[in-house]
Amino acid sequence: MSNCELEKALTMNQSVQVFKIWGIPVGYNTTWYLIFGLLTWSLATGYMPTAYPELSLVQYWTIALIASLFFFGSVIFHELAHAFFALRDGIKVNRITLFIFGGVAELDEEPKTPLSEFIIAVAGPISSAIAAGFFYAIYLIGQNYPLVAAPAQYLASINLLLAVFNLIPGFPLDGGRILRAAVWYFKGYNIATKAAATTGQIVAYGFIAFGVFRMFSGDFFNGLWLIFIGWFLNNAAAAHGQQANLNQVLGDVPVSRLMRPTWHTVDGNLPISKLVDDYVIKGDSRYYFVKNNGYGYEEDEHLHGMVTVTDISSLAQQAWKITPAKQIMTAWEKLITISPSVPLLDAVRQMDEKNINQLPVLDDGNLVGVLTRENVLHYIRMKADGNSSGLATA
Known about the structure:
- The structure is a single chain.
- The chain starts with a helix and ends in a 10-residue tail after the last helix.
- The protein has 14 helices and 10 strands.
- It has a 4-stranded mixed sheet, with helices on both faces. Strands 5-6-7-8 form a 4-stranded mixed sheet. Strands 9-10 form a two-stranded antiparallel ribbon.
- The chain is an alpha+beta fold.
């Protein structure tokens, strides 16, 4: 699978890097321990004793451990295939991570063309099919030696299953991206994304329904696992659908359309307690530009930085009376800014990546406005209500 916002949230938290390849960190999320343990246990106590009843308990556990390690190596191989073609297309790959539902290659951005989308997506199932063929060849060569044949047979079948499973035409699976590439070519990106997301949710509900059926049929564990898979697929597909809606709403709207053309300035020597009492409590704004930063100019109107409500809340309240605004401000040269001509979608991504709620808007180095997350959300709500004119500009 390649990336989406849900996948990022799952893979970025509590991840451990193991090695790097092509400059890409490869590691695992702590949730991977659970699936690795369950897989090893199920192989050692179920699959191997049934397929090869003549082996010992120690051999079952040894084979199970080796097979599990090679299986997750196959998953990394699958994700590296995505990463290779993404890099070839000039798309940065932030990381490859194993987690409870398999693996994910987190791409820094979406492919730019339907062909690029198709090539990056189809590379995964093809790599799994190649791995299946490789392990099947090992099985044929060593089929008279159970310690070789047992893990090879399992790895051949599981990689083939992985290839087929990922071809299911719904997000976030590779088949969903292949479907999107096809629809994208004929109908455009947003329609294609919505189609693949909707199909993904239908597939997810199918997994959940089948899981419930299996549970009531006596196969409780596998049924529960199918329900978990369906839940994950549904959430991931919904995230893609929401992203498509966001793309459609924001479209090519420039930052200049939503930015606030006015802002508040405060003296750099103003105590935080006064800033809170005179400005913040009155609800004037959540950010304030700082002038007169103590550089020796009596009437210095040059802006030296910005103080936000978040900055204030991170300061102990007992220090408010003795702390001037300039002490907790973000210096001007360290502010993350944006141009008025930049599309809103790019601005929202910057806010999300940097975890900030406002972006000063500079035109030729001069402050011309501020874009806030509140403005963007208000705009989205108004568009959803069928009214695109309700913009907050105060």
